[in-house]
Amino acid sequence: MADAKNKALWHGRFTHAPSSELMDFTASIDIDRRLAPEDIEGSRAHVRMLGKTKILDGKEVAAILAALDTTQAEIEAETFVWVESDEDIHTAIERRVTEIAGAAGAKIHTGRSRNDQVATDLHLWFRRAARAAIIATHELQKTLLDQAQKAGDEIYLPGYTHLQRAQPVLLAHHLLAHYWALARDVDRWRDALDRADVSPLGAGALAGSSLPLDPKFTAYALGFSRVFENSLDAVSDRDFVAEGLFVAALEQVHLSRIGEEIVLWSSAEFGFLDLAETHSTGSSMLPHKKNPDIAELVRGKSGRLIGNLTGFLATLKALPLAYNRDLQEDKEPIFDALDTLISSLGALSGLISASTFNAESMRAGADSPENSATDLAEYLVRAQVPFRDAHAQVGALVNESIEKGITLREVVANTKGFGPDAVALLDKGVAVTNRHSPGGAGPEPVAQQMVLAQQHRAHLTKWLSD
């Protein structure tokens, strides 16, 4: 590393060149190269601030900005030449700007450290990535809402607790349950974005600068609404990364639940869902198979996102103020988490859109008289029987039908205290129409819920367009 081009940014303090072992182990260029757009954007704002505060003159500012434009064009065209000393994206861009702009380019890092620089880059990237996650979530919500509208009041299925049949619910109600879980994920992303809406640029290595920097100028130039209050906190804060990892992990868990249901519902044992050939795979050995690989991978990837979160929290644990090289480990998990989540959302949306629900199988599972046992108990409650006693009486009737090998309908019809109107509660399709309470699974509350979901979607659409 004899020539300036191949020297590390920090070479001045050292009389010996860094070993290949050191550079190979500490370099992050393969990971943080994707931050090039954000690094150049932050550098432009920083250089303009240096010009505003008269730290650089107009010619220097123009030369550096032109060099940044050239560097960005080379990176986008994939003609940028990477060299051995490019240990990270900041080093690579500064080196190239200096090659192009000469002495002026060497001033690009004035009043700035890689500590506040990388924090700024990651804030900018997170802002875009989290918004992309919201957009992808919004699309999956649309898919669920479309399928719910298509199912309407006609398709119902058994609702489950403990994976045992419990009470009939409209398919639309079931799909909307996932819609509202995703709505909470969107709320969490928006909260995380608000807390990440702070510019660290100007904090320096840890203590600011003796130069007349203007952090507010760079913050607003980059679209941040707030400026850091404490330079130590600014360069060491990775709360937004940890929070993003949590939100991504929890949303992937929500997707995993959808994936699990698709795996179950598309099995012959359930038969509730027919997978489209365009969104399923076959077997290399079994000619008859049609497998729900998208759903399985969505389910499986949730483990990795949980691991990203727990691993990074362990990295943060007990780090002293301010910046430590440990924080270099922030990018790989958050990049992976957002990439995985966004791709999962898109794949799952396509799968659900292309799938066909088997209404006949769903209704057959829901119409078992035992699924109306709670309606029989509530029938007795209307006759002023305490619910606990009513629960016990109906439970005994169910047991009697099992022991005698006769239908629950027959038992109810021959039991004192239950009239024809009680027997009618066991008719096919009746139980689901009896769910009248707000937020319930019957036609009336589901219709109200559909309106709320459409209003919620319209509100989010407006927010995304602002």
Automatic annotation (TrEMBL):
<dbReference type="GO" id="GO:0005829">
    <property type="term" value="C:cytosol"/>
</dbReference>
<dbReference type="InterPro" id="IPR009049">
    <property type="entry name" value="Argininosuccinate_lyase"/>
</dbReference>
<feature type="domain" description="Fumarate lyase N-terminal">
    <location>
        <begin position="12"/>
        <end position="307"/>
    </location>
</feature>
<dbReference type="Pfam" id="PF00206">
    <property type="entry name" value="Lyase_1"/>
</dbReference>
<dbReference type="GO" id="GO:0004056">
    <property type="term" value="F:argininosuccinate lyase activity"/>
</dbReference>
<protein>
    <submittedName>
        <fullName>Unannotated protein</fullName>
    </submittedName>
</protein>
<dbReference type="InterPro" id="IPR029419">
    <property type="entry name" value="Arg_succ_lyase_C"/>
</dbReference>
<dbReference type="Pfam" id="PF14698">
    <property type="entry name" value="ASL_C2"/>
</dbReference>
<dbReference type="InterPro" id="IPR024083">
    <property type="entry name" value="Fumarase/histidase_N"/>
</dbReference>
<feature type="domain" description="Argininosuccinate lyase C-terminal">
    <location>
        <begin position="373"/>
        <end position="411"/>
    </location>
</feature>
<dbReference type="InterPro" id="IPR022761">
    <property type="entry name" value="Fumarate_lyase_N"/>
</dbReference>
<dbReference type="GO" id="GO:0042450">
    <property type="term" value="P:L-arginine biosynthetic process via ornithine"/>
</dbReference>
<dbReference type="InterPro" id="IPR008948">
    <property type="entry name" value="L-Aspartase-like"/>
</dbReference>
<dbReference type="InterPro" id="IPR000362">
    <property type="entry name" value="Fumarate_lyase_fam"/>
</dbReference>
